[in-house]
């Protein structure tokens, strides 16, 4: 299959290439795509050098699937053009997530909604993906009334310039400043832009995407998103009020059975999820699972995942794998 990766030279695009190779995705022709400033560059894929192309040239090659990770502006303009050529676009930006005509997919939860007519498919926000992987089965079993989540988000979620800022501050370099404050030895309660309601776009993504993916507009969600000086992945503290009573043994059993979720909860031996364990892995890690002693039918959870892998690249490739297996006919291939 012809596979395009739009934004191939960025952090997420680079991870998409890694994941495609690691999972042995059926790529017969790779089309790495980037902006004009990357013209003439090449990337390594399966031991070979592949030249980076511009969007117009990539469009003319009519890829079967295009993985987009080049920002919302690029996606809004170019995803419809690729879709118009018959390409299936899997978009990692926020451009299409809340579009009522587009599906927002976490494969373990709702890939069954996809069909051959879907030409632009939205990849959820990284924080939403890792939060919902354990929450979706709980919602199915017990129902969810309210989610209160605080995120502790890696600088990699902002991009390479944010990583450079952290490293510059830590090692006395001279990189530019992406955040309004120093990030090393600091926590900044400011992810994305502030909105009129006092919340940031990142916080409202957790609200709106949760309701769309779980198909339940009655779920109450309150979020606070914080940027921390970490590179390995995002962490989340989640307080979850369920509609019905539960037994802890049943909750833990449900987590053990959930695809893509790894229970890491042995506090006697100081074993619990941390970004240093999640970095480079595709699983979502969950631990510190305990009943909220202050309120009935409520759980506390600690959830960690590599935001560049399952939070972005791996989830997109998993969508592509599902499409190849279930939505593209043998004749089309």
Task: Present the secondary structure layout.
Layout: E1 2-6, H1 11-22, E2 29-33, E3 42-45, E4 48-51, H2 55-60, E5 65-68, H3 72-84, E6 88-91, E7 103-104, H4 107-110, E8 120-122, H5 126-142, E9 144-153, H6 160-171, H7 201-213, E10 220-227, E11 234-242, H8 248-257, E12 261-263, H9 275-278, E13 284-291, E14 298-305, H10 309-326
Parallel strand pairs: 1-2, 1-5, 5-6, 6-8, 7-8, 9-10, 12-13
Antiparallel strand pairs: 3-4, 9-11, 11-14, 13-14
Helix pairs in contact: 1-10, 5-10
Could you explain the architecture of this structure?
With 333 residues, the chain is an alpha/beta fold. The protein has 2 domains: 2-124 and 312-326, NAD(P)-binding Rossmann-like Domain (Rossmann fold), CATH 3.40.50.720; 127-307, Dihydrodipicolinate Reductase, domain 2. Helix content is 33%, strand content 23%. The protein has helices at residues 11-22, 55-60, 72-84, 107-110, 126-142, 160-171, 201-213, 248-257, 275-278, 309-326; strands spanning 2-6, 29-33, 42-45, 48-51, 65-68, 88-91, 103-104, 120-122, 144-153, 220-227, 234-242, 261-263, 284-291, 298-305. The strands form 3 sheets. Strands 2-1-5-6-8-7 form a 6-stranded parallel beta sheet, sandwiched between helices. α4 (107-110) links the parallel β7 (103-104) and β8. The chain is globular, with a radius of gyration of 20 Å. The N and C termini lie close together (7 Å).
Short description:
The chain has helices at residues 11-22, 55-60, 72-84, 107-110, 126-142, 160-171, 201-213, 248-257, 275-278, 309-326; strands at 2-6, 29-33, 42-45, 48-51, 65-68, 88-91, 103-104, 120-122, 144-153, 220-227, 234-242, 261-263, 284-291, 298-305. It has 333 residues and is an alpha/beta fold.
């Amino acid at each position: 299959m012809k596979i395009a990766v739009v934004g191939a030279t960025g952090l997420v695009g680079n991870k998409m290439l890694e994941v495609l190779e690691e999972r042995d995705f059926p790529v017969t022709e790779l089309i790495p795509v980037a902006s004009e400033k990357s013209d003439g560059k090449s990337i390594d894929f399966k031991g070979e050098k592949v030249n980076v192309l511009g969007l117009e040239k990539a469009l003319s090659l009519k890829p079967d699937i295009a993985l987009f990770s080049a920002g919302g502006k690029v996606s809004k303009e170019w995803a419809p053009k690729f879709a118009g050529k018959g390409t299936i676009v899997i978009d990692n930006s926020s451009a299409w997530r809340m579009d009522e005509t587009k599906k927002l997919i976490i494969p373990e939860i709702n890939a069954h909604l996809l069909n051959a007519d879907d030409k632009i498919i939205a990849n959820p926000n990284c924080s939403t993906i890792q939060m919902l992987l354990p929450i979706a089965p709980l919602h199915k079993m017990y129902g969810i009334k309210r989610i209160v989540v605080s995120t502790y988000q890696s600088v990699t979620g902002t991009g390479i310039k944010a990583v450079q800022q952290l490293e510059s501050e830590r090692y006395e370099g001279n990189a530019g400043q992406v955040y309004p404050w120093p990030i090393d030895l600091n926590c900044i309660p400011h992810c994305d832009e502030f909105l009129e309601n006092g919340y940031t776009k990142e916080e409202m993504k957790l609200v709106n995407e949760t309701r769309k993916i779980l198909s339940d507009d009655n779920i109450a969600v309150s979020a606070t998103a914080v940027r921390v000086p970490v590179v390995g992945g995002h962490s989340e503290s989640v307080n979850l009020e369920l509609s019905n009573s539960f037994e802890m043994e049943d909750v833990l059993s449900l987590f053990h059975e959930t695809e893509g979720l790894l229970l890491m909860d042995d506090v006697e031996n100081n074993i619990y999820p941390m970004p240093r364990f999640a970095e480079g892995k595709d699983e979502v890690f969950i631990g510190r699972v305990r009943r909220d002693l202050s309120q009935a039918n409520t759980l506390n959870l600690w959830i960690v995942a590599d935001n560049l892998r399952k939070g972005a690249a791996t989830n997109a490739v998993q969508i592509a794998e599902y499409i190849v297996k279930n939505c593209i006919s043998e004749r089309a291939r």
